Amino acid sequence: MAQGNRQETTNNPARVAVTAAGVISPLGFGLAETLESLRSARDCVTPMMRFSVTQCRCKTAGQVSDSRLLASHPQIPRSGRLHRASHMMIQALQELMTQQPEFEPELTVVGTTSGGMSYGERYYRSLNGAGDLRHAPTWIANYPAQKPVIDAQTAFGISAPCQVIANACASGTNAIGHAFECVRSGRYQRVLAGGYDAIAEMVFVGFDSLQASTPEKCRPFDRHRSGMVLGEGAAVFSLENLDLARKRGAPILAEIVGYGISTDNFHITQPEPSGVGARQAMERALERAHISAADVDYVNAHGTATIFNDATEGKAISALFKGVPVSSTKSMMGHSLGAAGAIEAVVCLLVLQHQFLPANINFTAPDDDVDLNIVGNEARPAPVSIALSNSFGFGGTNASLIMRKLPPSPTLERTDEV
Amino acid sequence: MRLAIAGMGWVTPLGTGVDSVWERLLQGEEASTTTISEKFDARVYSGFRVPESALNGISHPRLRRASAISRFAAAAGLQALESAGLKRESQNFERIALIFAISNGGVTYTKRFYHEVVGAGAQAASPLLFPETVFNAPASHLAAILGVTGATYTLVGDSAVGLAAITMAEELMANEALDYCLVVGTEEIDWLLCDAYRRWRLLRAAPPIEPFNKRNLGMILSEGAGAIVLAREGFATIERAHPGGYFSRRADAAKILKRILCDLGEPDIDFVISSANGTFVDQAESQALQAIVPNALAYTGKPALGESVGAAGLWQIILAAQGLSSKELPPVLHVDPSIRLRLPLSRTPIPKARRAVVLSCGLNQQAAGLRMAIQ
To answer: Rounded to two decimals, what is the model's pTM?
Structure first.
């Protein structure tokens, strides 16, 4: 669909509106707290509390408070048995449904990488003699990746079929991008899209074993960057046919105008060094949006702060965009893997709505090999009409999403038609 | 939009290659189970495994350290491309999308990775194993082997995920920039999976799988892969992929299956490829079939091939395509002949068959279907 992106799905593709959103992340519970954290460039990475990291290089992560999370929706039957990931999805969807109580998606597309992994870990540790297996059926039932999505839908009476995309760290952007294409093609009018992931020991240790995570601060695009920190959370969007949403009087928060996907096949954990895969994803998103790189006002970078990602992505961004403001908000909240693309799409949404540039914190010195206009350390006001968000993942999977602020009057048409 | 099947590939415990496996099914053969054990637990399980010899000839640098699930997928995917007449060296792989249907993923390497962490601490974690634990590792390997540079997606779900992948393929193929979509479903067995499904009361200690038995005696897990090349023209048409939905409780599964059959059903459905596997699924499907398409023949391949979860949907689609093209169905094995369903109890000619439904009720709340036709 976004493959090549050179041919249209139909002669008259539908426009795609974001009519509601919900988010939970280390930055906060909900859009308002998230906005406040972004504006104040808050560092929400904290010492790891969930499991022992004494043998790991990295000791920190962006974490969602359990006490607050589990207290958020006690009315849900058997909520104590649900995985944290389910609680996060419920929390995010609750915020969305508060904005759009009548929203009835025909399809749900959600990205993740780990599902209920920590329940799998408990089960395995218990099998190995370290624990009680009485709760094993609960852990097993709540382990599958689709379960948090189904739990969240069930909580709000949504019966849409679910597609759960697991394209590693690009999953959230892929999910929103695919949902965008589904509405754009006219096949669906309303799609729920997003991403989630909850921190798990196995994943934490895995990134540590690759020496991808850092014992220091997360400094994307910095000359002294030394790696990523993990994060967690969930974010969801209601995507609707824009014309139909307007007809029913729904608020239009933003318009999604472009999505690009590419696969670079270089290495299972490392990006193609020239940045061709990242560049293709961005180019395809721009083509889909019928805009030029010069139209983009802000890039929310994948920006993991690993040596390889930032060098590659930096090359790709600087080759396409001249001087566009760039930041990686992972510096504030960590890398939430399958949720990252969805949470960062929320960041773009807030940027468009509130006209500011979020910061790339912990930034000390630019990397001489990367020519980027980094929004260092402080958020600042700026006019932003179009924002692009990148997500890249293991397996050489790359995805870019473009969102734009909708002009206040429906008589103002999209950029390419002006 | 209608898609067609242009090629298929099949790696199963009963053999490799569509024609070979189909012929053995027609003969009433079933795969043999092997014993699956684990160092830290005395309990043993039965599973249908793919023999190592089935993967002879599949070699690529990306597969050197890859888990079985990736190698099954690569073998089935390459078979499907070959049967569609697509040559790796001359094909424009920018115009091919790749969709993987995965359920449990690379569980063997995941277990090994975590076992080292649990046993010896985080410093023992293997950076070589970790990337293979990621759900999209099999898709990444096949994309690299083929040189796919565009859309590659991995969908995760239960045994209905293969049909969800077909729905996604329909969505992708709405773009004329794509000529083909290669859809692969794959699964590997491990003791850990067997133990988990047993604790969930879905597994039987030893074969056979007795489909539609009211006592829900349980399933036997299986492994392998199925792949189909979807194009705009081919020997069998997917008239409609039904995205289905989910059921909150097992008792509600029949309701959604009935809805899927109603939506897909036409008076001239000749047969249904069921996902009956000896669990609660069977009664749900039985109720739906009797209520909506009581005159259609129902076939399940799971007693012969096992429950391959992530690969199961693709296997069902291959069965439907083979049934329509060869105009016969294999016998359903180990079934009580008194059951109130029209089942082929022996090799059954269906000379006028033109239309089939694939119905999939997953073990983890998902259900989907599709309708296929042949000229």
So the answer is: 0.96
